[in-house]
Design a protein that fits this description.
The structure holds two protein chains of two kinds.
Chain A (H helix, E strand, L loop, with lengths): L17 H20 L4 H18 L6 H34 L7 H16 L2 H12 L3 H25 L4 H9 L3 H35 L8 H9 L3 H29 L1
Helix pairs in contact in A: 2-10, 3-4, 3-6, 3-8, 3-10, 4-6, 5-6, 6-8, 7-8, 8-10, 9-10
Chain B lengths: L1 E9 L5 E10 L4 E5 L6 H8 L7 E6 L2 E2 L5 H9 L1 E4 L11 H6 L8 H6 L4 H13 L15 H14 L4 E4 L8 H18 L2 E5 L3 H7 L2 E6 L2 E6 L6 H8 L14
Parallel strand pairs in B: 3-8, 3-9, 6-7, 7-8
Antiparallel strand pairs in B: 1-2, 1-4, 4-5, 9-10
Helix pairs in contact in B: 5-6, 6-7
The chains are: A mainly alpha, B alpha/beta.
Chain lengths: 265, 256
């Protein structure tokens, strides 16, 4: 039989777009309300723009000789990130296990563990560094501690979510074999989440390099100290060399880490 | 010997999985449990090693109550019971050898298993188990590289390495093709005969049940409606178990 031409009245009614319009409207409202409350104005931006160009002009060319001077500080930044990530990643393992509700079935354990994690994740790393500087004084130690705490929050959170999504089959098999809880974790859980965990640690290292670069602003060691100093003395050519150097290091480490993570998963 | 005494299981949603089961399974038997989906086959099997807790009654393994056992004594009883799953339940990223060795952990101190320091004897018995199911050459492959039938044989090897006295197989061939099904069932049968390991298998296909079992137990709505030798399991009796005549699709076909 031939298909009759489809009459317009036969088209199904499209679903209502009201929800989409309403969402866009609310978002726009929030945007303009925020702009008004923070006194952000386009005219200020226009007025300030020449200053920005002036700053950029002073930044070019960068002071190439300055690279040698800041090399130790840059290496210190990388070392801080490395140490902070390592300590954090190790401490994150038991916390992640305690937070996963398929490992610890009792919520008296996993709720407190998750609560601690949430608190850790709420505190910004710069604030953590400032607190540790006031306790331990200036230097790299408060920076490393701040990055450690920050890494715990990130690695543990991502890892426990990975643990909760593992295949339960091997866990059941390990129970049936007569394994105790520790063997059950080492043979059922860890082989399944290990690649994810390593990937998260690498990712955290990337984030920590970036974070470590600014920790010096509050006196917690690393390259950030030189940002503060050069900006203070209006040595913008030096500031731009620091920015370039940081950019190169961050890009390099991001690239290596991304490649490694691709291989893992 | 496995003894069920007045065992019932009611699920939290009120569904009765098992209803007053009384059974005795003797050493060296090859028991096949048949019944429709939801008849309680899996519940019955999993209650033996307490992957499922029963709500009433008691189950004894060689005279010891697994229902009452706790901690180390529960783990000791489980160590003697190998389990084979429909979905194999191997750690896919780990090597075949490590999967088989995981069957040994119940015998070793925790620190040794954490460091992966398995005694020579254990590694030897893992290789022997792999040899028995004819996949010795796959020992260092990752489990994920193996076909379904090969993976199932790895899980049989794990049960062998465990030196289990009882093997429970929960729909071991449900996700395999007919030819692989036959190989896996042959492996189970051979192990049962050579090593005298009591074997209990849940099966969908009644012609497979007839071919391999020494004893068939029919379940229907959580109750034992048939229990006898293969010779007594006629088409008419199967029709009673299933509550209707046997269909074509309940037979695996010519291969089996």
């Amino acid at each position: 039989m031939m298909n009759l031409p489809l009459e317009k009245r036969n088209y199904p009614e499209p679903p209502s777009k009201l929800k989409t319009y309403l969402t866009v409207f609310i978002l726009l409202l929030l945007f303009f309300a925020s702009a008004m409350k923070t006194n952000a104005s386009i005219s200020d931006l226009v007025v300030g723009f020449p200053n920005m160009l002036e700053l950029l002009k002073q930044m070019i060319p960068p002071n190439w000789l300055y690279f040698e001077k800041i090399l130790p500080a840059m290496l210190e930044t990388i070392r801080m990130a490395l140490l902070g990530t390592t300590f954090g990643a190790i401490i994150a393992i038991p916390i992640a296990l305690f937070s996963a509700n398929n490992i610890v079935k009792n919520y008296f354990f996993y709720y407190p563990a998750r609560f601690i994690l949430n608190i850790i994740r709420t505190v910004p790393d710069l604030l953590l560094a400032a607190i540790f500087v006031s306790i331990f004084g200036l230097g790299t130690l408060p920076g490393i501690l701040a990055l450690t705490i920050f890494s715990i929050g990130l690695v543990a959170k991502l890892t426990y979510e990975a643990i909760e999504s593992i295949d339960t089959g091997p866990l059941e098999a390990m129970t049936a074999v007569g394994a105790n809880k520790i063997q059950w974790i080492f043979y059922g859980v860890i082989p399944q989440v290990l690649p994810h965990y390593i990937s998260y640690v690498l990712y955290t290292f990337e984030v920590n390099i970036r974070a470590a670069a600014v920790l010096g602003l509050v006196g917690a060691g690393g390259i950030g100290l030189y940002y503060d100093r050069t900006l203070g003395f209006f040595e913008y050519d030096k500031t731009s060399s620091i920015i370039l150097f940081t950019l190169v290091v961050v890009l390099l480490i991001d690239y290596i880490s991304t490649k490694l993570r691709e291989k893992l998963l | 010997m496995i003894e069920f005494q007045n065992v019932s299981k009611t699920y939290p949603n009120g569904v009765k999985g098992l209803n007053d089961i009384n059974l005795t399974i003797h050493e060296g038997e090859f028991v096949v449990i048949v019944g429709l989906s939801g008849a309680g086959k899996s519940t019955l099997l999993r209650s033996i090693n307490r992957l499922i807790e029963v709500t009433h009654g008691e189950i004894f393994i060689d005279g010891q109550s697994i229902t009452m056992a706790k901690g180390i004594s529960l783990r000791r009883i489980r160590r003697d019971i190998g389990m084979i799953f429909q979905t194999f339940n191997l750690v896919k990223r780990s090597t075949v050898l490590r999967n088989v060795l995981s069957g040994r952990v119940g015998y070793l101190p925790t620190w040794r298993t954490l460091l992966g320091l398995f005694p020579k004897q254990d590694v030897h018995s893992a290789f022997q188990a792999l040899d028995r199911v004819n996949i010795l050459e796959k020992a260092y492959s990752r489990a994920t590289e193996l076909s379904g039938g090969q993976q199932q044989r790895v899980s049989i090897a794990r049960a062998l390495a465990q030196e289990a006295k009882i093997i429970l197989a929960d729909e071991p061939v449900a996700s395999l093709d007919p030819l692989t099904t036959k190989q896996v069932m042959d492996d189970l049968k051979r192990i049962n005969q050579d090593l005298g390991i009591t074997t209990i298998v849940n099966l969908h296909f009644i012609d497979l049940a007839r071919e391999y079992a020494t004893r068939i137990i029919g379940l229907r709505a959580g109750e034992v409606v048939f229990d006898g030798p293969v010779s007594a399991a006629t088409d008419e009796r199967f029709a009673e178990i299933y509550g209707r005549p046997i269909h074509e699709k309940e037979l695996l076909g010519a291969e089996a």
